[in-house]
Structure formats: structure tokens, C-alpha cells
Amino acid sequence: MRNGIDYLSSVVEHLDEAVSDVSARDLKYADLHLQVAAEVLAALVPQLSKSAFS
To answer: Taking the model in full, what pTM does it have?
Structure first.
């Protein structure tokens, strides 16, 4: 779960206009990291469901 949260944090950092202007590169990596975060966190759902009903 930590990796998924790290990827989400990276998305926020890449899109934070208060730090610097958002470049095309920032958008590219924010998009990539958001996709990976969704995959990592979605992979945890079956494990969490299994442990919740055990």
C-alpha cells in the first residue's frame, strides 16, 4: 500500500503549481504515476477483502 501512496504523492508533486510551473514532462509523469498508483491500490482490494472477512 505504501508504494501506491508514494505514487499518489508524486502525482501531487508533479502538479503542484505553487512549487513551479507545470510542464509537459510533469503532466506526463503525473499521468503515468496516477495509472501505476491505481493499479497498485486495486491489486490490494482482494487482499483487504479477504482479510476483512476472515
So the answer is: 0.78
Domain of 26 in residue numbering reads as 2-52
Task: Give whole-number Cα distances, 31 to 8, 44, 49, in Å.
Answer: 10, 20, 28
Residue 15's nearest CA partner among 2, 1, 32 is: 32
The string of pLDDT tens digits covering residues 37-50 is 999 999 988 887 77
CA torsion, points 26, 33, 2, 13, in degrees to nearest 10?
A: 10
Q: How many residues does the chain have?
A: 54
Would residue 22 be called left, alpha or beta, if left means φ above 0 and alpha means ψ between -120 and 50 degrees?
A: beta
Give the chain's domain count: 1
